[in-house]
Specification:
The chain has about 70 residues and is an all-alpha fold.
């Protein structure tokens, strides 16, 4: 088998950069904001049943807690 029959793959430098690429489209602010959105919505989902049971002005039926 000669070297002409063996297929070779030429790798370019931009193909090998799969980690920290120096580009401006990382959406860092959006990623930080999404963490706070998840924090607020999960806190609301966890605390609403507790607050609704303690406050009669929310008028949640007692059958919802059984």
């Amino acid at each position: 088998m000669s070297s002409e029959e063996i297929p070779t793959v030429e790798l370019q430098e931009d193909v090998l950069q799969c980690g920290s690429v120096q580009n401006e489209t990382t959406f860092f602010g959006l990623r930080v904001a999404s963490i706070f959105v998840i924090l607020v919505t999960s806190s609301f989902g966890a605390l609403f049943p507790v607050i609704a049971k303690r406050n009669p002005w929310l008028a949640v039926p007692k059958s919802a807690y059984k």
